[in-house]
Design a protein that fits this description.
about 20% strand, single chain, alpha/beta, Rossmann fold, 2 domains, binds 5-O-phosphono-beta-D-ribofuranosylamine, 6 helices
Length: about 220
C-alpha cells in the first residue's frame, strides 16, 4: 500500500458475494491500492449486486439468458468492462465460462478464486468432493484465467485441514475464511505491479520464502 495510483477493478460474481464484500471492505479501509470500477453479475438475484449497491458501487446485471451465444454475452460484458476503465478483472464466484473474445480483451488480466487446491478438484462441488475423497487438506487457489476450467497459472494458495466431522458447509466456511484473505492480497500484488508471469510460473517480486510444513492429523512422536 502506498501513494501509487489505484488499480481499477471489475468484480464479476453470480452469487452471494462474500469475496466481493471482503474486497469492498479492504478498499474502504485503505488496505488496497484499488478501486472497484464496476460489479457485474449474470444473475439478477445475486447478493453481490445488493452488496455493490449498498456500497455505492457502479453495478449492472448482464443476464446470460438474454443472449443467443456465449460470445454475444461475453462481448456485452467486455464492452461494459472497457467502458468502466477496467484494468484487472476479478472473478468471484462467477458461474460462467469465459470465452476467447473475453480472454483476448484482457490478456493475463483475469483472475479467479477456486475453493480447492488446484490442480486437485477443479470444477463444481469441490468441497464435497475433497471430503468424499478422504483428503486431509484442501484450501483455495487464486489463478489466472485461461481457456480451460480452473487450469490457469496459479498465483497463490491457502491450505486448510479437513476434519473427520466436517460437512460440506463447515469445510466451505473454513475455506471461505482464507479466500477472504488471499484474494485481496493478490489484488494488492497486481496494484503494486509485483506479479511476474512466465509461462505457468507466477512469481511475486520481493516476497519472502517461509519454510513450514503442516501435518493433519498432527504427529505426536518425538522428533
Ligand atoms: C467461493 O467459494 C469461490 O471460491 C467460488 O465461488 C464461491 C463464491 O462465494 N468460485 P462468494 O459469492 O464470494 O461468497
Amino acid at each position: 500500500m502506498g501513494s501509487q495510483k489505484k488499480i481499477h477493478l471489475a468484480v464479476l460474481a453470480s452469487g452471494s458475494g462474500t469475496n466481493l464484500q471482503s474486497i469492498i471492505d479492504q478498499c474502504q479501509q485503505g488496505f488496497l491500492d484499488a478501486e472497484i470500477a464496476i460489479v457485474i453479475s449474470n444473475n439478477p438475484d445475486a447478493g453481490a449486486l445488493r452488496r455493490a449497491e449498498q456500497a455505492g458501487i457502479n453495478n449492472i446485471c448482464v443476464n446470460h439468458r438474454e443472449f443467443d451465444s456465449r460470445e454475444e454475452f461475453d462481448l456485452a460484458v467486455v464492452s461494459a468492462l472497457q467502458e468502466a476503465g477496467t484494468e484487472l478483472v476479478v472473478l468471484a464466484g462467477f458461474m460462467r465460462i469465459v470465452s476467447e473474445v473475453f480472454l483476448q480483451a484482457f490478456p493475463q488480466r483475469i483472475i479467479n478464486i477456486h475453493p480447492a487446491l488446484l490442480p486437485a478438484f477443479p470444477g463444481l462441488h469441490v468441497q464435497r468432493k475433497a471430503i468424499e475423497y478422504g483428503a486431509k487438506f484442501s484450501g483455495c487457489t487464486v489463478h489466472l484465467v485461461d481457456g480451460g476450467v480452473d487450469t490457469g497459472p496459479i498465483i497463490a494458495q491457502a491450505v486448510v485441514p479437513i476434519f473427520a466431522a466436517d460437512s460440506e458447509d463447515t469445510l466451505s466456511a473454513r475455506i471461505l475464511g482464507q479466500e477472504h484473505k488471499i484474494y485481496p492480497q493478490v489484488i494488492q500484488w497486481f496494484a503494486e505491479e509485483r506479479v511476474v508471469i512466465k509461462n505457468r510460473q507466477v512469481q511475486i517480486k520481493h516476497s519472502k520464502n517461509v519454510e513450514s510444513a503442516t501435518i493433519n492429523p498432527p504427529v505426536s512422536t518425538a522428533e
